[in-house]
Amino acid sequence: MGGDANTDETDSPLGILITGGTGFIGSRLALHARSMGHRPVVLGLVRNPAEEANLRELRAASIAIEHLDIGGDGVPERLFDDIDVVVHLAAAQHEMNIPDARFREVNVEGTARLLEAARAAGVRRFVYGSTIGVYGHHRGVADEETPPAPDNIYGHTKLEAERLVLASGGELPVTAVRIAETYGPGDWRLLKMFRAVQKGRFPLIGAGRNLHHPIYVDDLVRGLLTACGHPAAVGELFVMAGPEAVTTEQMVEAVAAALHRPHAGLHLPLWPFTLSAALMETVLRPLGIQPPLHRRRLDFFTKSFALRTGKARRLLGWEPVIGFAEGARRTAAWYREHGLIDANGLGESESPEEEIHAPGR
């Protein structure tokens, strides 16, 4: 098996078990793997319109789907029949109406169960989808050697699981990938941003100079598939991000250009939003209610990420090729094609209740 900068194929078709496969990244990975002749099997849940839409695409591609809660269900041995590689993407991510214990159940305990099941089944590779959220509020350029400093329960539990995976390398060939903000066709999370920019109603909260290092989903999928087969990936941790870091303001400008709309450049002060978010979390989260605004949602306007991807280039021959301006154009075209936006305003389809988040997937 092997991979290089221009291909995501391995030398022979693989059976690939993808957890979180009804999500954005997992569904795109499954669809692309199928198109390359691999045999993807998806594990996932369907909890919102985005996942329902992904499920329809997966079924249309005749991809096997198993409904399983990685945080509570056992992992049946039969799921590993004819499976060579596990790509573990399932996670509790941005939910603010669940207790911290749920993040641990899914992100740590669920990963441990899946690792043990994969080891017992004798799979050839276990690829773990980690997150750049483990860096917290790091300033400067980060890479695999940068000390993690997570600042929320999601980052803490993802880092714990990442370390658990890498520590299992003596029993099972493993790879971990810290994934940057991911966007592109199939992404419903940034749809609200595209719609708001199209209507001229997307203000910048704060200065808009914080950095993002987004990765176009096709580039990420190539990287994950390369990690599934490349011998140099075994036992390694990689950062995968796009070819450039951009400010929040540059992101909004690129989206506006992709939509052929002017960008008003309206800025609002950060502090009222931070205060309101903290208050909503304090009042609503103990009641099990998702706060409409919370501090992690504001990470999009406050956290900065600039990342080095040289290790993946050096060891795997993988390199991202789609910059954000081009990626925004392709994403806008996908939204138009699916009736989610158009030249006259919103499309007829309903968007799911998802939010904009900066660190990670």
Q: What fold name stands as the CATH topology of the domain at 15-184 and 216-242 and 307-322?
A: Rossmann fold
- Which residue ranges are poorly predicted, with pLDDT under 50 across at least 5 consecutive positions? 1-9, 345-360
Supply the number of helical segments: 11
Query: What would you report as the Rg, rounded to the nearest angstrom?
Result: 19 Å
| Annotation, overall tally of beta strands | 17
Question: How many strands, what sense, and barrel or not for the largest sheet?
Answer: 7 strands, parallel
| Chain-averaged pLDDT | 88
Distance between the termini: 27 Å
What would you note in describing this structure?
The two termini are 27 Å apart. The protein has a domain at 15-184 and 216-242 and 307-322: NAD(P)-binding Rossmann-like Domain (Rossmann fold, 3-Layer(aba) Sandwich), CATH 3.40.50. Helix 1 (24-35) packs parallel to helix 2, helix 1 crosses helix 6 and helix 7 (248-258) crosses helix 11. A hairpin with a 2-residue loop joins strand 16 (341-342) and strand 17 (345-346). The protein is built from eleven helices and 17 strands. By secondary structure, it is α/β, with parallel strands linked by helices. The strands form six sheets. A seven-stranded parallel β-sheet has the order 3-2-1-4-5-7-12, with helices on both faces. The protein has a two-stranded parallel sheet with strand order 6-15.
